[in-house]
Write a structure and sequence with these properties.
Number of strands: 21
InterPro entries: Cell_adhesion_signaling, Ig-like_dom, Ig-like_dom_sf, Ig-like_fold, Ig_I-set, Ig_sub, Ig_sub2, Immunoglobulin_dom
Number of domains: 3
Strand content: over 45%
Shape: elongated
Subcellular location: Membrane
CATH architecture of the largest domain: Sandwich
Radius of gyration: 40 Å
Helix content: 10-25%
CATH topology of the largest domain: Immunoglobulin-like
Structural class: mainly beta
CATH superfamily of the largest domain: Immunoglobulins
Keywords: Disulfide bond, Glycoprotein, Immunoglobulin domain, Membrane, Transmembrane, Transmembrane helix
Largest sheet: 5 strands, antiparallel
Number of helices: 3
CATH class of the largest domain: Mainly Beta
Oligomer: single chain
Protein name: V-set and immunoglobulin domain containing 10
GO molecular function, one term: cell adhesion molecule binding
Distance between the termini: 132 Å
Length: 296
Amino acid sequence: MEWIFQQPGLSPEMFTKVNGSSTVFTLQNLSLDLQGNYTCTARNPLSGSSRTSAKELLVYYPPPSVPGCWAQTAQVGMMLQLVCSWPGGYPHPILQWTEEEQDLENSSWVVNATGTGDTHVETLNSSRLFHGKEFKCVGSHILGQGTEELTCTVQIKTPSLLTEPLKTCFVGGTVTLTCRVTESNPPARISWLRNLSHPELEIQPGGRYLLVQEGSVSNLTIQNCSHGIDEGYYVCKAENPVGLREVYVSLTVKKPVNIVGVVGAVVILLLLGILVISGIILYYNPILCLKGSMFR
């Protein structure tokens, strides 16, 4: 009689004890690699017949780290998703979302708040969310019974915006409007609007408009500024399932100043002033001017 471990390349530390028609197989120093199927084979040395029986060994181990949780926006609809992840253990842990020390499972607006798996996602309707609301994910494992439960928390926040309220652009020039989200959980979606009479009409990239977003900063670049088309108010909008914030940017489009003409006019006025003063001095005292003592 013998035991066979059906995983090549491993030699587990084992002890086999045969007692008449039975055998006892003992494993020591269990590791994760020893999880799998074990087969007991019995052979009759006279007839050559054999029988086998397979057993599966499950090695339980808790996740090596602590639970991690965060908030995100659902891909479809403005819904809040609470994500709790605690991977690396066997079997899967039990994850439960709670709200202000109240079980979400007993609430009428949340369904199935407790799940078994490495990751548990709970989707909430935004109608009952508000700024600063906190949620807690509680994780438990079969090997951690009787010990302190491991938790992580998420605090949701309405977006906060920071921008320059006044911007100026010269006709034919380029200007960049910047909008920065200073606080938001989950991350906010940033968009720009131009026509205040159609507040849902967003500016799309292309043509004279260039939209670039890096992290929580959105830049709207307007090329070839036009006084009649581009001057006016622009709206930066940041939205997440918790709330909506908008800030206004006033853009003024001016005609470029002719610097060469201004400098030329100033030079001409200075020369005229010098000629006038010189003429007055020559008229009243020509001898004084000739002697070089005009300043006396």
